[in-house]
Amino acid sequence: MPAAIALDNSGDLALLPPLIPDLSLLLSPWGVWLTQRLSHHTAVWLPRSLVMLLDGDGLPLNCGVAAELTPAIAFWNHCWPELLQKPGVHFFSDALDMSHAPKGEPPALLDRFDALVAALDRKLASGLGEGESEQDRLMLEGSRDALALAATLRGDESPVVLSALRHGEAEPWACRALDRFGLISHRLADETLRDVLAARLLRGFAHSGLAPLLGGGAPRLAAVHLAVPGAALPLPSARAATGLALLGEPDEDALTSVFEDSYDDTLWDGTIAIWYEVL
User: Fold this and answer.
1) Whole-angstrom distance, CA of residue 36 vs CA of residue 136
2) What is the pTM of this model?
3) In this structure, how many other beta carbons lie within 10 angstroms of the beta carbon of residue 274?
4) How confident is the model at residue 245, as a pLDDT?
5) Residue 147 and residue 134: Cα distance in Å, rounded?
6) Would residue 12 count as lying in a domain?
7) Sign of the torsion formed by the C-alpha atoms of 208, 211, 217 and 221
8) Is residue 8 part of a domain?
9) How many domains does the chain contain in total?
10) What is the per-residue pLDDT across 143-171, written as a single tens digit (0 to 9) for each?
């Protein structure tokens, strides 16, 4: 993994852990700018749902929602080629050759990410909201990907999910998603711990040039930290192609893969999440 810990001018360790913004931030007017600024100072991982949206393969949206998101998507597409050249910008696509992951990472990380996403989808299947808007479903998908990334990444530093806390809302979108998946999130009440965690992010954000965004209060930033015991499991074995390809014979479905934790619903058992408003 590219070092999310680097040296600043004073020789101190860098200020920011790896960061995972969710769609509530990325599809805001500041999404591209925030990603660009932060990627100079740490690894920024983007949810797969954003990449699919830019490719035109995301959730189908009605005309109203599509029209509302068109300016943001157009701006992302305009900036996308340059963002892909930045060494600090990463994402997992549906296949390894389409992903933008750091060199040297084990291919099985994508398998683990897929398994974590699938396990969350199965948790949600029995509790779909009937009156849910398409925009809510898109935000939920983006939060799902962000949470799964946070559980997948295995660097020396645990990543932090960044989410927007909108006016009048009691919790950020990432925590609303945790609730939908049957996972509990706690607003951090311990002021000492909160001050330590928030101070590090604030210093790093200021160092990255985000002071005007933070000082202006729009959007309000929330940070979500996850502890996922199941993520400590060894990574799954290398993918094995199904069908006749296993016997050395050609198979049209040779790219279809099976891996040992693809249907493991226990991966999220015991998960603890805390969140706090950064400023």
Assistant:
1) 26
2) 0.86
3) 19
4) 31
5) 20
6) no
7) positive
8) no
9) 1
10) 999 999 999 998 889 999 999 988 778 89
